[in-house]
TrEMBL record:
Pfam families: Csd3_N (PF18059), Peptidase_M23 (PF01551). Residues 22-104 form the Csd3 N-terminal domain. Transmembrane segments: none annotated. Gene3D superfamilies: 3.10.450.350, Glucose Permease (Domain IIA). Residues 239-335 form the M23ase beta-sheet core domain. Its cofactor is Zn(2+). Keywords: Hydrolase, Metal-binding, Metalloprotease, Protease, Zinc. One of its GO terms (biological process) is proteolysis. The lineage of its organism: Bacteria, Pseudomonadati, Campylobacterota, Epsilonproteobacteria, Campylobacterales. This is Peptidoglycan DD-metalloendopeptidase family protein. It comes from Sulfurimonas aquatica.
Length: 396
């Protein structure tokens, strides 16, 4: 049975323990991590079943993880986050080490701040918060409707209200924007997260595109959609009915839109393939995957931006890349020509519910503007955890 422990509350035999936070380095493997920390390879890798071994390959560079050591610097526990939902837990059990995958325990807080534009929204959000993630979601939310370069003026105000996850007292995962407001030439522009998980403007019109620009973040396009392409493996001309995104093996692949997984298995030249059915007859395909993310299977509903697999070179492929296709009623179409495959205008009861939500958000925005709400910065991680009566103070 999976045992879900709070990292800091489990060790009750010691009065004090050190909790150190580290950053997973680029190119580091799970086996290398075990060797570097003198942890047993046989128990924690070679004796694992194939699914758990594959799970260890999902560690990504830049992720923060924690190691708890006792007063003798012996490792008592390790927590290695794999994604927003799952983590590897290594712990001592009856004199030896054990491995398990457990859910991530996190809390969510609604936070907000206001700032005055002196240069640009991106610059001032970064200056105010130090968070690239907050700047990223703000810019992305308005990118299809506002021109920050030409229409922004010094002295304009902006407000962000968002949900932020915390894990072990530290910011974790991407924030979820609830409402944002920016003044431009004395006019206020809003974006609201509705109860249907879509974003709308003040008039109840959907403002977010259905599809993500790229299902592999930071990847370069190595081959475009074309009806005529010389195939590098078959050595002949044929249609290339998708986009190829070149990326390192193991790079996360995200769902381009919300929908139901209708296929997740190997299929001929596609190699490991995922098909997702979306609204209005649209379907996306993700081919040549190294592996599927744990929990991705036929019938699973996934959200836009959710990790579904990892870049590989299975099937007919000359190197690691994602082959991405967009189809409507079975016909392949060019993803780059589809900015918004569907937009929604709220009507009837949906619009009435949205206007009530909008009114509450507007009152919150006005309140934060009046109070000049400042971003609250967390104290730095101290690296010391005092375990006493099942209480832990990880941040001083």
């Amino acid at each position: 049975m999976i045992r879900i422990f709070l990292l800091f509350a489990l060790i009750t035999s010691a009065f004090a323990s050190d909790v150190q936070r580290y950053r997973w380095k680029n190119g580091e493997t799970f086996l290398l991590f075990l060797e570097k920390n003198s942890l047993p390879l046989k128990q924690l890798y070679y004796d694992l079943d194939k699914d758990d071994q594959r799970l260890t390959e999902e560690m990504r560079s830049g992720i923060h993880y924690q190691i708890l050591r006792d007063s003798n610097q012996t490792i008592k526990q390790v927590l290695l986050p794999l994604n927003d939902e799952l983590q590897i837990h290594i712990y001592q059990d009856k004199g030896s080490y054990a491995f398990e995958a457990i859910p991530i325990i996190s809390t969510t807080r609604t936070e907000s701040f206001t700032t005055t534009i002196t240069h640009s929204p991106n610059y001032n959000i970064l200056k105010e918060t130090g968070s690239k993630k907050l700047a990223q979601i703000f810019i992305a939310s308005f990118k299809n409707s506002l021109n920050f370069k030409n229409d922004i003026r010094k002295g304009d105000k902006l407000v962000m209200i968002y949900d932020q996850k915390y894990r072990l007292g530290e910011v974790f995962s991407m924030p979820t924007l609830k409402v944002a407001m920016i003044e431009m030439r004395k006019k206020r522009h809003f974006i609201y997260l509705n109860d249907d998980d879509r974003y709308y403007d003040e008039k109840g019109h959907e403002v977010e595109g259905f599809l993500l620009a790229r299902p592999v973040r930071g990847a370069r396009v190595s081959s475009h959609f074309t009806k005529r392409r010389y195939h590098p493996v078959l050595k002949k001309w044929k249609a290339h009915l998708g986009m190829d995104y070149a990326a390192r093996r193991g790079t996360p692949v995200v769902a381009a839109g919300s929908g139901k997984v209708i296929y997740a298995a190997r299929l001929g030249s596609y190699g490991n393939l995922i098909k997702i059915r979306h609204n209005d007859g649209y379907e996306t395909r993700y081919a040549h995957l190294k592996s599927f993310r744990r929990g991705i299977y036929r019938g699973k509903y996934v959200k836009k931006g959710q990790t579904i697999g990892y870049v590989g070179t299975t099937g007919r492929s000359t190197g690691p890349h994602l082959h991405f296709e967009l189809r409507k009623h079975g016909r392949a179409i060019n993803p780059l020509r589809v900015v918004q495959v569907t937009t929604k205008k709220l009507k009837g009861k949906e619009r009435k519910a949205f206007l009530t939500l909008k009114k509450n958000y507007d009152e919150s925005v006005n309140l934060h503007l009046a109070n000049k709400t400042q971003f609250k910065k967390l104290p730095k991680f101290t690296g010391k955890c005092y375990v006493h009566s099942l209480e832990c103070q990880a941040n001083g």
